[in-house]
Structure formats: C-alpha cells, structure tokens
C-alpha cells in the first residue's frame, strides 16, 4: 500500500507502474461492484490507503465518465488537502503532512434521474399505469416535467 510509505519507506522501492496498474484495476472492479448496490439518492464513499493518482483521481474521473448518474459532492468536515487534477471535493492525507498513513477519499452521490423522480412522487406503484409509464420512459431522451396543481405534464 502506497499509503503506508510513512511507516514502511522501503515499500516504495517495490512499486512499479505494472503494480500500480494492477491495483487500479482491482479498485475499478470494487467501485463498480459497489455502485451497482447504491440506490438513487444514496452515497458511495470511495476511500483508499493509496497516494497514487492512478488509484484515486484518475479512477474517479474514469468512474464519473462511465457512470454519469454519480457526481462528486463535498466531504464534511474537511480533514485533509484537496484532491489532485482539479478534484477539490476529494480529500487526501499524506504521511509527511498529516502524521498518518496516506489516504484518498471521494464522496459520490447517485442522482435521481427525472423519470425516477416523476414516478416516485406521482405514480402509485400498485397502479397499472405505473408500468405503462415506466415502459414508455425507458427510451433514451431528455424529458422535462412541469407540475401544476392538478397534473404533471411531461415533454420530450
């Protein structure tokens, strides 16, 4: 673990680009496996005891590109330094700065999409219309919802 360089400085001599790549792929599989289990409106906290950009910021960039339903959100309280590569909502701890192991933390919110919000607040799940609306909206596209006191209107 690159995060333990403060305790085990000799570990840095065993680090290779290949080993970093292997760890990043393991992290990629783990974050995607976890992401499948997050409900809309839920939070996924990604944390490593690594200081490599490949396992952290680059992996989060790749994740956000592959899964646009997730977005970075602020971590509170702030306890470290901002992430690298412009990821200021992420946090990093360094052995030489924070008197701890090295860590990276990203907090990711799974967004409700507009269709899910519409269905959640406007359609009873027992209704046969629920399944009809769900089938109609399973097509890709941009929808806007306008709510009046008597009904909700959907434009595509």
Write the layout of secondary structure elements.
Blueprint: H1 17-35, E1 43-48, H2 57-66, E2 70-73, E3 81-82, E4 91-93, H3 95-98, E5 103-110, H4 114-122, H5 128-137, E6 144-147, E7 152-155
Antiparallel strand pairs: 1-5, 2-5, 3-4, 4-5, 6-7
Rg on CA atoms, Å: 21 Å
User: How many β-strand stretches?
Assistant: 7
Instruction: Output mean pLDDT.
Output: 78
Class based on secondary structure composition and strand pairing: alpha+beta
Residues in helix, % = 25-40%
Sheet-strand content, in percent, reads: 15-25%
Work out the helix count.
Answer: 5
Task: Kindly report how far apart the N and C termini lie.
Answer: 49 Å
Return residue spans where pLDDT drops below 50 for at least 5 consecutive residues: 133-156
- Spell the H/E element sequence: HEHEEEHEHHEE
Shape: elongated
Largest sheet: 5 strands, antiparallel
Briefly say what this structure is.
This protein has 156 residues and is α+β, with helices and mostly antiparallel strands.
Give a written overview of the molecule:
Strands 1, 2, 3, 4 and 5 form a five-stranded antiparallel beta sheet that branches. This protein has a two-stranded antiparallel ribbon with strand order 6-7. It has five helices and seven strands. It is elongated, with a radius of gyration of 21 Å. The chain is about 35% helix and about 20% strand. It has about 160 residues and is α+β, with helices and mostly antiparallel strands. The chain has helices spanning about 15-35, 55-65, 95-100, 115-120, 130-135; strands at about 45-50, 70-75, 80, 90-95, 105-110, 145, 150-155.
């Amino acid at each position: 673990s690159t995060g333990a360089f403060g305790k085990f400085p000799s570990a840095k001599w065993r680090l290779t680009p290949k080993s970093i790549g292997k760890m990043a792929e393991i992290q990629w599989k783990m974050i995607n496996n976890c992401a499948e289990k997050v409900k809309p409106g839920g939070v996924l906290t990604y944390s490593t005891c690594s200081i490599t950009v490949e396992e952290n910021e680059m992996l989060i960039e790749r994740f956000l590109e592959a899964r646009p339903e997730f977005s970075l959100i602020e971590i509170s309280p702030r306890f470290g330094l901002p992430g690298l590569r412009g990821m200021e909502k992420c946090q990093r701890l360094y052995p030489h700065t924070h008197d701890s192991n090295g860590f990276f933390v990203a907090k990711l919110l799974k967004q409700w999409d507009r269709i899910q919000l519409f269905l959640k607040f406007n359609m009873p799940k027992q209704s046969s219309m629920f399944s009809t609306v769900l089938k109609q909206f399973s097509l890709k596209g941009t929808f806007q919802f306008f709510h009046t006191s008597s009904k909700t209107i959907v434009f595509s």
